[in-house]
Automatic annotation (TrEMBL):
The chain crosses the membrane at residues 20-37, 57-77. It is a single-pass membrane protein. This is Trichome birefringence-like N-terminal domain-containing protein. PANTHER family: PROTEIN TRICHOME BIREFRINGENCE-LIKE 3, PROTEIN TRICHOME BIREFRINGENCE-LIKE 9-RELATED. Residues 176-462 form the Trichome birefringence-like C-terminal domain. It comes from Flemingia macrophylla. Keywords: Membrane, Signal-anchor, Transmembrane, Transmembrane helix. The keyword Membrane applies. Residues 121-174 form the Trichome birefringence-like N-terminal domain. Its main location: membrane.
Length: 463
């Protein structure tokens, strides 16, 4: 192995101990052809008689080098631990939290090197714990970012306690990089990113926009809001968009023409009126879950609403969900070119409407909860594993690759981070009297900044 090869090898694998490398470097030019010949003969299988007289230091070094090289090589190839150890390579200068209190985190777009290595098969971000870190400084607030909707603006709506903003997700087997806005915009340069789904997906979109918009000069950004909302970063020729489609397929309640969930009828085979707005996009992020859980049964209809709403069938939620997702999957497979568009699916966001799930038998929903659940692998009644299996089975059969942004388990712990009573109902903020009633707590949606920011940390890393 030449010195150039040695340098290449040491960059790709764990470095050799310094003393061996120094030994080889020091003696490399001193080696004569005669002293190398017996070594070559030995390695090629020829029996070599030991030379008479003193054994030169150069030969000792070379022999030692070959011994170490082969030992290191076989150790590297045969070790099974490398397949078990999960690691995400990140910039070593990036702050890591190992204790409850860490070095102060200041928004600084120079934190990251934008070529860190991420291997999704080696990193399970969903397995970990929430660690309190009082030095965290969120990249935005609901007062600094003008795009946070009122239902998620907990501080503006009167929430006084702030601990829920200082918990950071710490995966068990790898490091989750902080969200770097400049890196995010670089990755999106010349691209369209579109979030499609319900109000929980909308909060993820708002979180993403808020985490990048503050580094963009005012004249270099714009926002258009509606059913199809578009945030534009002009300097980067990038858009971060959201399309309202809470069930992905059509229903008669999604635009609140009919507000009673019990009168909801879902067209499980119809998606084109919505999906025609999802083409020509570089990155698609879908979600749908909570709207399918409004009742045990779902009224499913085939055909057009123009033909009337009679003739629907009442199906179990999982069966209807499966039919709707298959319609979505067929559209993706028949329309999306995986060479041009990446497709993601955000797993279900847990609801916390039953306090007995986490042992608070005297509580009501998530009202007045101020700390995450500490029990590892907690799983409450607000996350339906059967529905998750439906998504998994549908995606497995698809031709176009779909990557899961797995947020469910990590979000299960966060009973403290919902909008609770610091929200609105019917377009009006809750009054102080209404805030005192635990049943009014919204334990579905999340405060911003908050848990959806962590979802986007994972999403950016996957990009």
């Amino acid at each position: 192995m030449s010195m150039i090869q040695l340098h290449s090898y040491s960059k790709k694998h764990d470095p050799f101990p310094l003393r061996y490398v120094l030994c080889i470097n020091y003696n490399f030019l001193l080696l004569s052809f005669n002293s190398l010949t017996p070594i070559i003969r030995m390695t090629s299988g020829t029996i070599m008689n030991p030379p008479s007289g003193k054994f030169p230091i150069t030969k000792i070094c070379v022999l030692l080098f070959i011994t170490i090289l082969y030992a290191e090589s076989f150790s590297f190839l045969s070790s099974s631990s490398i397949f078990k150890f999960k690691r995400c390579s990140t910039n070593s200068n990036y702050p890591k939290s190992n204790n409850n209190k860490t070095k102060e985190v200041v928004p600084n777009v120079s934190w990251f090197h934008d070529e860190f290595v991420y291997e999704p098969e080696e990193c399970d971000f969903s397995n970990g714990k929430w660690v309190f870190n009082s030095s965290i400084k969120p990249l935005y607030s609901d007062t600094s970012c003008p795009y946070v909707s009122r239902p998620y603006s907990c501080v503006k709506n009167g929430r006084v306690d702030s601990d829920y903003r200082y918990w950071e997700w710490q995966p068990e087997d790898c490091t989750l990089p902080k969200f770097n806005p400049e890196l995010a915009l670089k990755k999106l340069r010349g691209k369209r990113l579109l979030f499609v789904g319900d109000s929980l997906q909308k909060s993820q979109w708002e979180s993403f926009v808020c985490m990048v918009e503050w580094i963009i000069p005012q004249k270099q950004k714009s926002m258009k809001q509606g059913t199809h909302s578009v945030f534009k970063a002009k300097e980067y020729n990038a858009t971060i968009e959201f399309y309202w489609a809470p069930m992905l397929v059509e229903s008669n309640t999604e635009f609140f023409i009919i507000r009673d969930p019990k009168k909801q009828i879902v067209k499980v085979d119809s998606i084109m009126d919505r999906a025609k707005n999802w083409t020509g996009v570089d990155i698609l992020v879908f979600n749908t879950y909570v709207w399918w859980m409004s009742d045990i049964k779902v009224k499913a209809l085939w055909g057009s609403f123009a033909n009337g709403e009679e003739g629907y069938e009442e199906l179990d939620a999982q069966i209807a969900y499966n039919l709707g997702l298959r319609t979505w999957a067929n559209w993706v497979d028949s329309t999306i070119d995986p060479k041009k568009t990446r497709v993601f699916f955000t797993t279900m966001s847990p609801t916390h409407t039953r306090s007995a799930d986490w042992g608070n038998k005297d509580g009501v929903k998530c009202f007045n909860e101020t700390k995450p659940i500490g029990k590892k692998n907690h799983w409450g009644s607000g996350s339906n594993k059967g529905m998750m299996r439906v998504v998994e089975k549908v995606v497995k059969k698809m031709k176009v690759p779909v990557s899961f942004i797995n947020i469910t388990q990590m979000s299960e712990y966060r009973i403290d981070a919902h909008s609770s009573v610091y929200t609105e109902t019917g377009g009006e903020l809750l009054t102080e009297e209404e805030k005192a009633i635990p049943q009014n707590a919204d334990c579905i949606h999340w405060c911003l900044p908050g848990v959806p920011d962590t979802w986007n940390q994972i999403f950016l890393t996957m990009l």
